[in-house]
Design a protein that fits this description.
Elements: H1 3-17, H2 22-77, E1 82-87, E2 91-96, E3 102-107, H3 110-116, H4 126-139, E4 149-155, H5 159-179, E5 185-191, H6 195-204, H7 208-220, H8 226-231, H9 234-244, H10 259-301, H11 313-323, H12 334-350, H13 354-365, E6 371-380, E7 383-392, E8 395-402, E9 408-415
Parallel strand pairs: 4-5
Antiparallel strand pairs: 1-2, 1-4, 2-3, 6-7, 7-8, 8-9
Helix pairs in contact: 4-5, 6-7, 10-11, 10-12
Length: 417
């Protein structure tokens, strides 16, 4: 028998011994085991991927939260936003964040260091820092009376924000001055820093705000030396401007608010107006003296023709009347004295006009024009007072001004959000 036939017969015999469903059962068992193994493997891989994905997702969420919340938080709280320079002769600079919280207070000269000495103003509100610094200047004798000049400079890339901060600082300074029972002339400006101003400020130990001020002033008048101006107090510079009659209202080298020039110009106009008023009062007194003397003369000289030439009363009266003429205004006669005291009383009674009261309020606020919402003359405890309200942008101002003297009784400003 051949080999092929033998293998065929054996195959037939073995096949007969194996049940028909044996292959099916074996096949199903193999498939189920493989499927179970594959499923377990897939689950294991999925679990590993799931855990990794959750970790990555969590990290991404944290980074996203830090980016969304942390970056603005850092920008609002730790990045310098506004720079406020306060110059008298001491110079100090307040650096604030976008929330007007103080990041740093630094001096621009030795006197400024003396003002800051012992104070930690970091993280305080801007108004608290302003009040503390003005109070220190008063206590150390840098601000003594109304002859003191204060230059306030606000630097911010956003002009609207600069004007808002300036309005708040001016109001805070006025409150601080009132609290310390002193008066001072406050002039102000908002500027954008320049390389030249920064360099000049560093070389002369002054603030950038004062540097801008003196550089512009020296450019306006060639007889002035910016370095010499840098050494002077603000009040001394203002007096020099008045003395030299410099018209600085046309200095507009910067796009920012040029109210500092307008304020000094207003001060010049106020001085001129006071001089005119004094001149009018003096002229009125002289006219009253002349009228009194003229009235007194006929009364004394009328009896003279009826009297003998030897009698002396008429010439004496005539002589007395003649000496009361303005050639000797200091003669201690009743007729001359009464009109001189009456003239100022009359001027005080008449007081200032509503337009003048508005000018005083605008000048004090450091602005040239506004939309007035209220201008009323009222009486408070027997004192005539102009109640004035006006608005510039979103800043509302409120002033009470003595209608007789023109003195500012109260002032406030509020940002209308």
């Amino acid at each position: 028998m051949k080999r092929e036939e033998i293998e065929k017969k054996l195959d037939t015999a073995v096949s007969g011994m194996i049940p028909e469903d044996m292959f099916k059962r074996i096949s199903e068992n193999i498939v189920s085991v493989d499927a179970e193994r594959i499923e377990k493997g897939m689950k294991k891989k999925f679990n590993i991927f799931g855990k990794g994905f959750v970790g990555v997702a969590a990290a991404a969420c944290v980074l996203f939260a830090v980016g969304v919340v942390g970056v603005p938080y850092y920008g609002n709280n730790y990045v310098p936003d506004s720079h406020v320079d306060i110059d008298v002769n001491p110079g100090v600079e307040i650096v604030t964040n976008k929330k007007n919280k103080v990041l740093e207070v630094q001096s621009t000269n030795q006197d400024g260091a003396a003002v800051i000495d012992g104070m930690n103003l970091k993280n305080t509100e801007l108004k608290v820092a302003v009040n503390a610094l003005i109070g220190s200047m008063v206590q150390k004798g840098y601000i003594q009376n109304e002859n003191t000049g204060i230059l306030v400079t606000v630097r911010n890339d956003n002009e609207d924000k600069a004007n808002k901060v300036k309005a708040e600082v001016l109001n805070d300074i006025n409150i601080a001055l009132s609290t310390n029972s002193v008066q001072a002339t406050v002039i102000n400006q908002t500027v954008k820093s320049t390389v030249d101003a920064k360099k000049f400020a560093a070389e002369n130990n002054i603030s950038i705000g004062k540097a801008v001020f003196v550089l512009n002033l020296a450019a306006k008048d060639s007889s002035l030396d910016a370095k010499e101006l840098a050494k002077m107090k603000v009040s001394e510079i203002a007096s020099l401007v008045v003395q030299k009659g410099i018209d600085i209202r046309d200095i507009v080298d910067y796009d920012s608010d040029d109210s500092i020039w307008e304020n000094i110009a207003d001060a010049i106009e106020d001085i001129d107006e006071d001089a005119r008023e004094k001149g009018i009062a003096t002229s009125a007194a002289v006219e009253n003296n002349t009228a009194a003397a003229t009235t007194a003369q006929p009364a004394a000289t009328q009896p003279a023709p009826a009297q003998p030439a030897e009698t002396q009363p008429a010439p004496a009266a005539t002589t007395a009347a003649q000496t009361e003429v303005p050639t000797q205004p200091a003669a201690p006669t009743q007729a001359a004295t009464q009109p001189q005291t009456a003239a100022p009383t009359q001027a005080a009674a008449s007081g200032i006009s509503a337009d003048r009261a508005k000018q005083i309020a605008l000048s004090h606020a450091g602005i040239s024009g506004a939309s007035f919402t209220k201008v009323e003359l009222d009486t408070d405890d027997g004192v005539r007072v102009y109640e004035i309200e006006f608005k510039v942008g979103n800043v509302e101002y409120d002033y009470d001004i003595d209608a007789t003297s023109g003195a500012i009784l109260s002032s406030s400003s509020e940002i209308d959000d």
